[in-house]
Write a structure and sequence with these properties.
The chain is mainly alpha-helical. About 70% of the residues lie in helices and about 0% in strands. Helix 4 (about 55-85) runs antiparallel to helix 5 (about 90-125) and helix 4 packs parallel to helix 6 (about 130-139). Residues about 15-25 have low confidence and may be disordered.
């Protein structure tokens, strides 16, 4: 029986696996987990999880809420920029939309400030003197 040797460093895959992984020119397609690992996303998530595990659960949840608000704020700011880029700025409907969007951005910013203060107070009550967790959530 003849043995076929593959060059070192190449994964040995069954024909079924080869068909699944050879969707592009390189012959190998990275999984989502592999892409996250290469992009550093996986390490960032692990570091955030480790940092939040040192915190009491209610503070960690508040920090998660702050991060969600931050994402919402970015989306609302992008929407506001799109509205401001419209050519028909004199149209009353566009003006109303811009005002509503501006109010939404302001509201989210106020929520973030209030939540950041609540997190700070909760950290003081819990005896946590390291402000790094709060700062990293806000950045």
């Amino acid at each position: 029986m003849m043995q076929i040797h593959k060059p070192q460093g190449y994964p040995i895959a069954s024909p079924a696996e080869s068909r699944v992984k050879s969707n592009d020119a390189t012959g190998y397609r990275l999984s989502e987990k592999e892409l996250d690992k290469l992009s550093g996303k996986e390490a960032k998530q692990a570091a955030e999880k480790a940092a939040s595990s040192d915190l009491p659960e209610h503070i960690a949840k508040m920090i998660e809420q702050l991060e969600q608000l931050k994402q919402q704020l970015e989306l609302q700011k992008q929407q506001l920029l799109k509205l401001k880029a419209l050519d028909n700025q004199q149209d009353e409907a566009v003006k109303a939309q811009i005002k509503m969007q501006t109010d939404m951005v302001s509201s989210i910013q106020n929520q973030m400030i209030t939540l950041a203060k609540a997190i700070s107070d909760a950290m003081k009550e819990a005896g946590i003197t390291d402000p790094g967790a709060l700062i990293s959530a806000m950045v």
